[in-house]
């Protein structure tokens, strides 16, 4: 069986479908680390971590921030079912910076003994904010 020329990429959240396109390459944050996926990839199912994701069509890369969920990889298709996903052009960097600052304050408060702060939740908020900032910055500097 010949290798497929492209991958059909589908990215959906509980709220909406974000992407359904034929692409050349995908990179996503799996639970065991980042996965690079090309047409003909071995089938697998992985959980998603919080982090940047990108896909390439020809010479152009498109960036997203994703958080939690699953990805199904087949030789000719990648399906991403994310709890949260945001296209780079939709990210408000000022708002993401504010979320980062608040998460940082919560982490500091938890470390100094504030029992009302959930340290793990604050840590995840920090990672999500940093991912959003990284994705938005990369997308804006690529052009």
Q: How would you portray this structure in words?
A:
The structure is a single chain. By secondary structure, this protein is an alpha+beta fold. Helices cover 29% and strands 43% of the residues. The chain is built from two helices and eight strands, in the order ββββββββαα. Strands 1, 2, 3, 4, 5, 6, 7 and 8 form an eight-stranded mixed beta sheet that branches. Helix 1 runs antiparallel to helix 2. The radius of gyration is 17 Å and the shape is elongated.
Topology (elements, then pairings):
Layout (H helix, E strand, L loop, with lengths): L6 E6 L4 E7 L1 E6 L2 E5 L6 E4 L3 E7 L2 E15 L2 E11 L5 H19 L7 H23 L2
Short characterization:
This protein has 143 residues and is α+β, with helices and mostly antiparallel strands.
* Overall form: elongated
Average pLDDT: 92
The major beta sheet can be summarized as: 8 strands, mixed
Total strand segments:
8
Using only C-alpha atoms, the radius of gyration works out to 17 Å
Features of the shown structure:
alpha+beta; 143 residues; eight-stranded mixed beta sheet; elongated; 43% strand
